[in-house]
Amino acid sequence: MTNKYSKLALGLVVALPAAFSSVSAYALEAVTLRLAHNLDPSHVVAQTLEKMAEDMKELSDGKMKLRIYPGGQMGGPRETLEMLQQGALDMTKGSASEMESFESAFSVFSMPYLFRSKEHFNQVLFGEVGREMMQLPKEKGFLPIAGYVAGERSFYAGKPIQSPEDMKGMKIRVVSTPTTNKMIELLGGSPAPISFGEVYTALQQGVIDGAENNEPSYYQTRHVEVAKHYSEDRHTSVPDYLVIATQTWDALSEEQREILMKAAEMSEKYEQVLWDKEVQNSREKAAASGATFYKVDKAPFRAALQPLYDDAKKDPKKYSWIERIEAVGK
Ligand code: GCU
């Protein structure tokens, strides 16, 4: 550490936010960052974060540690993102939908059928557009530092949903945002804003008729036990993000940020490999637990959801993100 850094470090020890759980005498050299998320430890993204903790420790010679609180112990993403803003927690995981109420640009990921392919999605998430978007919430108290692919979301319920007709009158759980709520309404259902951890019981008790998610989340949450019909309409691709509190970020030294960002970049690559395997694995295991997967004609869904794009045109800021995304790879 240079003199400049050690001086900065000493200054920061005093001003350090409560978010830091432990800081050694050599301040910024040793740090333990607390990370809370709402996923089961077996989830791909949860495993990725565990791996990132190992990588960060190794890259920093044991000086930089992550203490991870999985499974929603500190609340859902809304709560943990708010904790980040208040400086009460260092890091969390937030999906783009969960971040929409904090930064409206992320709403584009809830736009159905926006991405032409997995390649298109990856070019956006890991390219100029995605990286620029990640800088936006910094002034609002948190900064996404890694993006994780999360496949495509489809509907599942106690019956197949092969056309919007089938959804008439059904109560469907969504990560509640103006875009996702409108999506369900346009398909003839009613949206239910239930937290991820409560979806199983809500399905079991008939509080809701269905939900929507990617295959790994469908299987790992055991929703498969209470909603056996998974209809592959593949309406959205909503990435997850690893997010750090701006206060914590500002308090790290250049050296620590470099290590953190290196580990974050490694975690993005690791997660992509794990994800592809996990989708296949989850499909097989879900089928073995009694799930049926249905191929679905997307055209009637696309047509029913067109008004979301007509609405977006009225919001020039949002629409310019959509146009930029559509232009990627063309
Ligand atoms: C996915 C996503 C999570 C999100 C969850 C949900 O599993 O990876 O970040 O919380 O969906 O539907 O709430």
TrEMBL record:
Residues 1-27 form the signal peptide. GO terms for molecular function: carbohydrate binding. The keyword Membrane does not apply. Keywords: Receptor, Signal. GO terms for biological process: transmembrane transport. One of its GO terms (cellular component) is outer membrane-bounded periplasmic space. It holds the Pfam family DctP. NCBIfam families: dctP, TRAP_S1. This is Tripartite ATP-independent transporter solute receptor, DctP family. It comes from Pseudovibrio denitrificans.
